[in-house]
Amino acid sequence: MKPGDGPTSRKVSSPSPMYLKGLKQMTDATAKLELTTFLPDEAPTDTASEKKSPWRTGGLLFAILAILSYFVSDYAIETRKSELLVDLQKRLEIGAAGEAEVIETWLTSSVQAANRIANSELFQLFTTEVNLTSDRALPRALADQLPYMQNAMTAFARQNFLTGAYLIGKDGRAYLASGGAPALDDQQREAARGQYSQSGNAITPFRTTPVGLTFDFLVPIMAAQSNGAQANTVGVLLMTVPASKSLGEFLAPSPLTGRPYITRLFQLGKEGFVELFPQRAPFMGQGADPDLSLDKADFEALPMPGGGILYSSGAPVPGTNLFVFQQVRDVDALKSLKTYKFFVTGLAASIVIVVLSLFATIWLVMKNQNAHALTTQYKDFAAQINVQRRLLGSINNTIDEQIGLTDPEGLYIYANPSLARLADVPLRAIPGKTDRDLFGEKAARELAEHDRKAIATEQTINAFIDIETVHGKRTLRIAKSRFVNDEGLFVGIVTVGSDITEYVEFQRRKEEMGQKTISVLAHMLEANDPYLADHSSRLGRLANYISEELGLAPETRQIIETGAHLSQIGKISIPREIRVKEARLSDEEQKIMQDHVNVAEAILREAEIEKPVRDAITQINEHLDGTGYPNALRDEDIDMPGRILGMADILIARISPRGYRKTIGIDEALRVFKSNPGKYDQKIVQAMTDFFETDTGAKFKSEIENKS
After folding, report:
1. Cα separation of 209 and 326, whole Å?
2. Beta partners for residue 214, in sequence order
3. Cα 158 from Cα 612, distance rounded (Å)
4. How far is CA 414 from the centre of its chain?
5. Rounded distance, CA 688 to CA 546, Å?
6. Residue 352's closest CA among 85, 64, 629, 580?
7. What pLDDT is attached to residue 571?
């Protein structure tokens, strides 16, 4: 198959001579990346010419070159040192910030675990009742609940590997503690009493114990049935968390930074920065570090006691008085500078020698009337140096990103080692191959399409693409841009890719876990409510059938299907006696029932469910004429997923029995929809009608009417 015949080739017009010249220059330049072509060791000579050595001129030139080389080398070394320090600063700042973020995430997970207890209606009710008790002796009803509550508290402490968990009253007394929890000290009691006047969670300073570092989480427990600004703190949940093991793992040397990098954890107190040692006694420094202060938390060069410099950069852990410092000694940080000095010095000496040799050669050639041959060689030498500097300066073979350069026919001219590893092809075998050879037909088609966009728009094209490799499917974020020569002519495509497979998989698992959790809660709700049994399943099936009739896009149908399964989740907050009430609800009960929409929206937002799904669920009870709730939306303010789910929900509900009204059939429900065009979308009504006239619709109709 010739280039351009396959489905992934880029069609181009007949190349002009100028273009072919530019392409040849680029190909020749790429070939010289091997640095295998040099000037001849010997210049042309003429034995008949006069043999005089220009010692005086050569000595003067040597002195000038030596002085110039010294200053240039010194400048290059200092510039390289500055570049290394800038890079080091970024590495230390990123490393410290990353470790601080890891510790913050760990603390946040502990807070989330505590919030599950603090927001539990059972614990809120128990704490409220205890708070209302005026004397120290609990009423018999509350005393009978103590064993159950203590078992729950003990299970919570064990599941979260806590030293102890306590419910503390305003007087600082713990009226409930997990099994085996140590006694509270005065500082813990005082901190708990102070939390009653605070609105949020709190973390106490780290302290030492015989087995390591520990600290306390203080989480206020609000009165049952309270919300918003009216919430009243009736108790404080205090969790004593062992920290040495987790902090030790966080502060261990990372494979990304290497052993020379030291990660240290400090706690900012009244005296200053006190270092914490999670893995070894005494676990906390005896005093503040004299070299550290708040004004030195940024990138600093600190003197070391035995001589030398310690480069340091710190980052605070948000919401705490902890600071993470990442440090490295100058001998490790600037290790490559030593090699660079040898390289620059050797290069300078080589340049001096080369220039002197070149001068002598030119002088001899000019003396022997052979200047033309020497000039040609000099031009080749200069062109070779320029090409090597241009390309070697723009391609970094050590980075993890995949870099490739292809010609207009899609044939690879250059690839870096990272791209070769991704394709599992030897680096030297890549030139001349295509994307189809390296990554298969499917990926090649997508990459070719992005190439065409980059060529057509003359802009950088950013995209995501899945590639099948020997190590499995990998997800890449790629950027493609045109490559032009010195004359501005297009001669190829530069592609830069980053492997984001692990990040994408993490996000997918996170979303999947959130949806599974909510789905389980929804099924538990339906299992305990006879009127909601199979409601979400029926709603989802009917909404899906309607979506098919309307020919909606797959993305919209996915939103509708997800919304159907999560539509009843808000009713978990409604008291059961209201949900299963046989008689018609009172106005007050109806108001409580309608609040389930807001509860659902809050639960789904906390679970990071995407906004289109949340909007569909909150719009289920809206109507086109503005008579719905909770926001009285009208007409186009109600999205199509919300309209479909709302009408399907009404139909499923109306054919299901209730104690205060009779059920109606599907045909009657459709007549109600048709008779109220201002309230219900008639396109959806027609789609329902068309569906129930099909064999599948008739079977579904019979199924749900018989079950009702």
Report:
1. 26
2. 207, 242
3. 38
4. 31
5. 6
6. 64
7. 78
* Residue pLDDT, tens place only, 378-390: 667 666 766 665 6
Number of residues that make up the chain: 708
Q: 164 has which bridge partners?
A: 240
Rounded-to-integer distance, Cα 618 and Cα 339, Å = 65
Query: For residues 697 and 545, what is the distance between their CA atoms, to the nearest angstrom?
Result: 8
Using one digit for the tens of pLDDT, what is the confidence trace for 649-676? Answer: 888 888 776 555 567 778 888 898 999 9
DSSP per-residue codes, 27-64: HHHHHGGG------SS----TTS-----HHHHHHHHHH
The SS3 call for residue 517 is: helix
**Total number of domains constituting the chain:** 3
* Residue owning tokens 């929409």: 597
In this structure, the answer to whether residues 443 and 408 fall within a common structural domain is yes
Other CB atoms within 10 Å distance of the CB of residue 385: 11
| Domain assignment present for 622 | yes
Three-state DSSP class for 473?
strand
Q: Which residues 6+ apart lie within 8 Å of 513 measured at CB?
A: none
User: 670, 689 in Cβ contact below 8 A?
Assistant: yes
Burial 641-652 (b: 16+ CB within 10 A, else e): bbbbbbbbbbbb
**527 and 640 co-located in one domain:** yes
Placement of tokens 């990098």 in the chain: 261
688 contact partners, CB below 8 Å, separation of at least 6: 546, 549, 647, 651, 670, 673
Q: How many other CB atoms are found less than 10 A from the CB of residue 704?
A: 17
Q: How far apart are CA 670 and CA 18, in angstroms?
A: 72
Q: Is residue 495 part of a domain?
A: yes
Alpha-carbon distance 576 to 53, whole Å? 109
